[in-house]
Predict the structure.
Amino acid sequence: MDAILPAAGSAERMSGIPKFLLPVADDYKSLLENHIENLSQYCEKIYLSTKPELVPIINSLNFDLKNIEVIEVQTKTMSETVLETLTYSSSDSFMMIMPDTYFLDGNPYRDLNKNPEVAELACWEIRDNQRGKLGEVEFDSSGDIANIVDKKIDNGFQYAWGALTFSKKLIPFIDNKDPHIGYAIKNALKKKQIINAIKINGKYFDCGTPSEYVELLEEVLLNK
């Protein structure tokens, strides 16, 4: 299994600051470094796709790992970034993590199915302050995904997804015009594909907004 870290966004909500470089530890370890440290334990290769202007910054982090490949992309959507990154890999299965996220007291890197039939989503209980910011999911009677709704503030589902593994069977459902890969899951569901899910303990943080990043810092640094 290979890992995909799509880090080619514009970071408009953070005034252009690369969100994945935000520190999450006393030693200034960044969100990106935290993911790479964890992914290296479970994935054969890590593909980090980013804009050309960010490559020198990423290289300056001096990752002491031979299984990381930094890919320069000029893409308009996360879906387009993922599709381009997939052309570099010969793997049959993939783990995708958003580099500006953080998982507290849970381990989706370990627990996600490494060989999903189509895809498996890691899901967390959504907090009230995350409503309208995440992709929410509904489960069927078997515990698989029955429905997925993106950033709808009054949706009311109990869980949101925040990471996934997928096989090549998901690729036909990825449209490079769609904002992110969650739309591929929705497309697959419409075609009656079974999308598995696991519920992860702990909390999921999307650090794309200052308020949620501050909440994360309070949890991991101030409340130790």
About this structure: The first helix runs from residue 31 to 39. The helical segments are 31-39, 55-59, 78-86, 108-111, 182-190, 210-222. The chain is about 20% helix and 30% strand. The first strand starts at residue 2 and ends at 7.
